[in-house]
Amino acid sequence: MKTAYVYKDDSKLAITNKRFLSFFYHSIAWIIAANFFIIMKAWGIDDSTGFLVFTQDKSIFMVHLEASAMGLCLGLFLTYLDRVRFHIFGRKKSFGFVLLIKSITYFASLIIIITLVAFVFLLVFGASFTEAVSRIGNFMLSTYYLTIFIYGAFVSFLISFIKQIDSKFGPGNLFNMLVGKYHQPRVEDRIFLFIDMKSSTTCAENLGHIQYSQLLQECFYNITSLIIKYKGEIYQYVGDEIVITWKSKAGLKDCNCLNLFFNFLERIEQNKDHYKRKYGLIPEFKAGMNCGHITVAEVGILKREIAYHGDIINTAARIQLQCNTYDEQMLISGQLYHRLVDCSKFNIKDLDRVNLKGKRKPVEIYSVNKIEL
What we know:
- The chain is an alpha+beta fold.
- The protein has 2 domains: 17-169, no CATH class; 182-369, Nucleotide cyclase, GGDEF domain (Alpha-Beta Plaits, 2-Layer Sandwich), CATH 3.30.70.
- 55% of the residues lie in helices and 17% in strands.
- The chain has helices spanning 17-41, 60-89, 95-124, 129-140, 143-169, 173-178, 200-207, 209-229, 248-252, 256-270, 272-279, 311-321, 323-326, 334-337, and strands at 186-197, 233-238, 241-247, 285-299, 305-309, 330-333, 347-354, 363-369.
- Strands 1, 2, 3, 4, 5, 6, 7 and 8 form an 8-stranded mixed β-sheet that branches.
- A hairpin with an 8-residue loop joins strand 7 and strand 8 (363-369).
- Helix 1 (17-41) runs antiparallel to helix 5 (143-169).
- The chain is elongated, with a radius of gyration of 26 Å.
- The two termini are 18 Å apart.
- The model is unreliable at 1-16 and 51-57 (pLDDT under 50).
């Protein structure tokens, strides 16, 4: 028996590795794009405008330094804008509306950052404030500025497109597919968490399909930031069920795999008045979890995806189905329980040995709860 305490959800304050990597990768992408523009546009050509300090008395190093500064500023600022936009709108507005707002803010950001960086470099390299203002004004009316702006807009579109594709396959999986990591089946040590809504059939009948779908959208929206915080990956949405997976090392660390589910339940509780007012009910969820070695492979031709095959994931799904039988919110396998370390936050109880469909031997299952103060 392991005791527990009620813990505070600090996901809004936590700076995750994935968040840092998002800023890092976007900045690198923009720096590379900016320097590639210089290679195409400025190498071997004198800068007749003189607006970007690309003059004969400045080395090619300074040309790339300014381009890198622009790329870094654009990468950091546009990534920050994306995060602000996500927190403000999320899924509350149509894709077209969000795309329009995103395009306007991106174009405005390109104009402001390109102009500001060029202005700062002019001041740093000896231009007076009045001269810098005059040269920047002329620069903004030049075809060279237009070329930079069009190129920046194209790069912005390309990065956004790649992000959408990566989001479609799951963060990181696009790169794995490009390099062929799962072209041949591989074996990985993973944890699988199945989260399912209780009494979903009754909810769907009472609410109707439209409202029921809206309810699921809101619930899955609430869990997204927690998946990022606790370093999980979304494997599938199946009806009213979401399947989350971790590489075992990441899921076991600090009991991330358990923390995610119970923080999700806390968020539902915090928003219970909203759910009761809008839908006439408070959604409840149950969960089952298992871990072990599983085969990972890239499947499909017309629609490709990364798929997991093996007994581990099937057992996790069947453990989740036992929640109704034992009236528990979360059940985990003995295989996972014996690998958990320092889970003093939770009350974990040896519950039973059950015969699951397709299993020759009974499976150990443990209930997981937290102590309410």
